[in-house]
Specification:
Length: about 150
Amino acid sequence: MLVDGRVAIPTLTMMEAVVEHLTAASAGVQPPGADYGASRASVEALYRAGVPILAGTDANSTPGAPVTPPHGVSLHHELELLVDAGLSTLDALRAATSLPALHFGLHDRGSIEPGRRADLVLIDGDPLDDISATRNLQRVWCGGQERVRP
């Protein structure tokens, strides 16, 4: 992946939820092959190899879907799982901000600079010390417009 310039969007939140769902459906017994640890280990290996890791969750509210990670909160959980898989807190934050902007060609966002789109969140706490601080949203701006507090 590194040689080919690929990125990884592992969706650990979804993988964790799938394993939990399969285990619950099997009366609490983890079925063969249903191992979240394998997903975590693959992210750790990719990160150590230098493959860019981007945050994603596969959040959805599809009726009847066996697993439906909720929009919003699942991204905070994904950041926590990325840190648990070996990413630094700074690289986990980059996985949700500057790296997706870079790799998806969104040149007007991804960093705080004059002339860039002002998509910002104000949080209470320091996510570099504790990535779960991203859950403490105080204010949100989308395209420079403040939104109602989450």
